[in-house]
Amino acid sequence: MQHPKTAAYCDLNNLLMVLPRAELLRDPVYMHNEMGAQFCQVVINNELVSGIRFLVYAPHASTVAIIGDFNGWQAKGYQLTRINQDGIDNGLWGIFVANLTAGERYKYQLTDQHGQQLADKTDPWGYYAEQYPSFCSLTYQQNAYQWQDHDWQARSVTEKHQQPLSFYELHIGSWCRHENGDFYSYRELSQTLIPYLKEMGYTHLELMPVSEHPFYGSWGYQPIGLFAPTSRFGSPDDFKYFIDQCHLAGLGVVLDWVPAHFPADEHGLANFDGSALYHDPDPRRGWHQDWQSYIYDYGREHVRQYLLSNALFWFEHFHIDGLRVDAVASMLYLDYSRKDGEWLPNADGGNYNYDAISLLRWINDEVYSHYPNAIMIAEESTAFPGVSKPTYLGGLGFGFKWNMGWMHDSLSYIKEEITYRSDHHNTITMPLFYAFSENYILSLSHDEVVYGKGALISKMPGDEWQQTANLRAYMGYMYGQPGKKLNFMGTEIAQTAEWNHDDQLQWSLLQFARHQGMQQLVKDLNYLYCSSSALYQLDCDSSGFEWRISDDSNNSLLAHERLDIAGNRMLVLSNFMATPRSMYRIGVPLEGTYELVLNTDAATYWGSDYPLITTIATDKQPSHGQPYSILVTVPPLATVFFKFIPNS
């Protein structure tokens, strides 16, 4: 039913009074505050009138109208005006609708250049959206929420490469659910998830995509509303409250962001004004065969502005701390997942997508310029050079990159039968050859526990005890390696089932000692990592890593030392055999004492509690090319950490 007090003002003169300067509509720093539905006031007939100004980009449309509950979903009288600003037709359409308030449902109704009516469209710049079946946009007052995270926002800028970063990757809909299967809301999660993550010692929460997506089973990787947090779990204000509470608890928030492609749903960006407005019409450039979705045309200025503005939007209005950019490899390569003849080369005949490369550099530069404490992360699966190198040095400008090679090599090794691991020793040492070629995050993400891959613990060989011991040793090995840390939810409780987005984690497993032990171990590893500068300060610098033993394939044993800037040391030993190594001599460079600080085989972790010497003084007996040595015992299928204390 039509809103009784609503009135539409389509006259260009009225519109020009509520339009920003033309340059602001072309500047991604401001566009997200000007496009779409914006609350404003305008003087009409000498009276100050409040309402909402709608702006949409549809250069190939012949007509555009706004429809919603306020006008009975009838376009008559609510036709948008084509805007000619400063003598320039920039493809924008606008209208001012008086007396509209927050929460009004609306869509755009367009006809193409031939007058053919298109499917009703949600607002590409919409801040809030409904779920199936309407997929309506809703008006939303972006600045109404009162933030409390002032101290967090006022933090001094820190060098993230020298800080401990431990990410907990989470899918909101399947972390925990009510007994009837209903989702936890954003506000409910703030009361449950945040205390849990703080207790577990994580520094950051990394959320799988929260931008509105019509298909829940896409996990958020097929977004329609890039500017709207999904309403499955609450309102935008509720999501702001959740992030606010994270910050008040000292927990950072990183969002998984999807600028690589968009779905073909008719209410979204696809053929928005009757043309291939956001993608290349040639499927060799514009259609992703694997994902059955459109690829953004990164060479078009309005597409570049749209994506950059969206990245900045999440920092400005939701106070996020970083973006993990999904599927970067698919953006960088024109032949990504394509056979010969299925792709078009660039101007130089190669396979690099120059437009995507320049866009990623632009996005990273702008984000770091406006938000110097930001964390920009690339999920990039190839050896593309300089992903985490600054743009002024020719790189893409990301702060970090997921280390997919480490994940692949280390999991390949740990899945081997214990007795055969000695034949694959080079697999576990290989990652150190490229460990410092980028600023890496060691990631055990959702990708490793889906599509028939099974749970992480199911990859481990042996009986129940050996599987659990293998996983404990592997987790210890991960935390001892150079690189920041990321674990997908459920890893910390040794979930036995493959991740299922339609169900919650197997929290009932915590009634069993082995799962309690794994949870305690991950907690202790986080605390050890975050409190030991030797384990994080030089994560991205080769001077922070020294091999002690890398070639003992017969015993499947590794030993290395981690160092911080001041020279403090942590010795890490991993025994990937089911046999303990007693009185094992290791060469070390300095005289002093090594004190045990963590043992993944401890009884508290459901380990065998094999007897160890917890304090070991160095001998003046040279070994492994070092002037001193120690005799250590390493339990079966275990990783141990020894802190070095030099002689005074």
TrEMBL record:
Record key words, sorted: Carbohydrate metabolism, Glycogen biosynthesis, Glycogen metabolism, Glycosyltransferase, Transferase
Show the active-site residues: D326 (nucleophile), E379 (proton donor)
Protein family (similarity comment):
Belongs to the glycosyl hydrolase 13 family. GlgB subfamily.
Please give the SUPFAM superfamilies that the UniProt record associates with this protein.
(Trans)glycosidases, Glycosyl hydrolase domain
Q: What cellular-component terms does GO give this entry?
A: cytosol
Question: PANTHER family, alphabetically?
Answer: 1,4-ALPHA-GLUCAN-BRANCHING ENZYME
Cited function: Catalyzes the formation of the alpha-1,6-glucosidic linkages in glycogen by scission of a 1,4-alpha-linked oligosaccharide from growing alpha-1,4-glucan chains and the subsequent attachment of the oligosaccharide to the alpha-1,6 position.
Identify the domain of life.
Answer: Bacteria
State the Gene Ontology BP annotations.
Answer: glycogen biosynthetic process
Fetch the InterPro entries from UniProt.
A-amylase/branching_C (IPR006048), Branching_enzy (IPR037439), GH (IPR017853), GH13_cat_dom (IPR006047), GlgB (IPR006407), GlgB_N_E_set_prok (IPR044143), Glyco_hydro_13_N (IPR004193), Glyco_hydro_b (IPR013780)
Is-annotated flag, keyword Transferase? yes
- This entry's Enzyme Commission designation comes to 2.4.1.18
UniProt entry tagged with the keyword Ribosomal protein: no
* Classification via Gene3D superfamilies: Glycosidases (3.20.20.80), Golgi alpha-mannosidase II (2.60.40.1180), Immunoglobulins (2.60.40.10)
Tell me the protein's name.
1,4-alpha-glucan branching enzyme GlgB
Q: How does it assemble?
A: Monomer.
